[in-house]
Design goal:
Length: 162
């Protein structure tokens, strides 16, 4: 499942750990024959999980920048890659390729299918009006040695002949 998630949206291999976490998150919300067509989430918490918030791994998205972090002529959102779900809150785990930072935000617009600029602008206006200052976090990228990643198909494998 992880390999197909990485290949489907051509996500860099440096995000393999995020793909594993996202796959586990999804798997825990899928029914299993081993537990009589119930989900592991349902067995643990006692109620059926909501799946309305599930998104396509690796899809392009726009995270709203809070008003306190932007100026009037500046951008209202930043383009990111969706990498999964936050462990600590009801938010999405994203990666900003321009600033090389991980972002956790609830106010996100996903481009899973083609949308017109008018639709994206309208959704940004709605997010801007109802945004919560506590719904945005930014983390420095701790994987500088992997910056840019390595495409899976371009990796060179050396075989030893014994």
């Amino acid at each position: 499942m992880v390999r197909s998630m990485l290949f489907f949206k051509n996500v860099k291999i440096m995000f393999w750990a995020d793909a594993v976490l996202c796959a586990a998150y999804i798997k825990n919300r899928c029914p299993s024959n081993a537990i009589r067509n119930k989900t592991p989430y349902e067995m643990w918490y006692g109620h059926i999980p909501s799946v309305k918030h599930l998104r396509v791994f690796g899809s392009t998205c726009y995270a709203l920048i809070p008003k306190v972090h932007r100026n009037k002529p500046g951008a209202r959102s930043r383009k990111c890659i969706f990498l999964g779900y936050s462990n600590t809150s009801k938010a999405y785990h994203l990666y900003d390729e321009v600033n090389k930072k991980f972002v956790v935000s609830r106010d996100v617009i996903f481009l899973e299918s083609s949308k017109t600029d008018n639709v994206v602008e309208w959704q940004l206006d709605r997010l801007d009006r109802f945004a919560n200052a506590k719904s945005f976090q930014e983390f420095d990228n701790q994987i500088l040695h992997l910056e840019g990643g390595v495409p899976i198909l371009d990796q060179h494998v050396e075989y030893s002949s014994e």
